[in-house]
Amino acid sequence: MSELSDIQAEVQGLASTLAHAGHRMAMDSDNAAVAVGGTGFTLNADQAHAAVREIDGFLEELETMKQKARSLQALAPPARDSASEDYNRRLTLGKASPWLPIDSGAAFDAAVDQVNSEINYLKSMREKLYKALGMTAETDAGNKEKIGQAAEENDRSIA
């Protein structure tokens, strides 16, 4: 069961790291201040790129954690007595178990589900950052094009 303790410690540590990541970015004095608005917040491109890198690191950690949590789902009972087997079923067979209600999950199933939820959340956050960065690049390219067109028109009007 020390592997379970290790995974629990990793999940708690990662959750704490995730919670503080946004705070660190907001308070980072090397970057421009993060402006908090009524419906969200803004990041400059450097902050968004840093957030994507940080999310990628978290996703790698979570994928490793998910593999460890999945290995716990395959644990065999320590003995072949009914108490050990019943306890093991509560840990490892949750949703797949015909003798448990459909909405109950075993502890290790719940751990995998939780890690999957965190992975999905971070992937959606990363996609939103990619979209925002793409929109910024498109806007920058559009602005550059407009400036170029204005300069050409100005050159024509002078000539």
Please describe what this structure looks like.
The chain contains four helices and no strands. The protein is an all-alpha fold. It has one domain. Helix 1 packs antiparallel against helix 2 and helix 2 runs antiparallel to helix 4. 8% of the residues are buried.
Fold topology:
Layout: H1 2-27, H2 45-73, H3 82-92, H4 107-158
Helix pairs in contact: 1-2, 2-4
Radius of gyration: 25 Å
Q: Into which percentage range does the β-strand content fall?
A: under 5%
Number of strands: 0
Contiguous runs where pLDDT drops below 50 for at least 5 residues:
25-37
- Arithmetic mean pLDDT: 73
Q: Give helix and strand order, one letter per element, not per position.
A: HHHH
**N-to-C span:** 82 Å
SS-based class: mainly alpha
Helix percentage range: over 70%
Task: Throw out a few tags for this protein.
4 helices, mainly alpha, 159 residues
Short note summarizing the structure:
This protein is an all-alpha fold and 159 residues long. Helix content is 74%, strand content 0%.
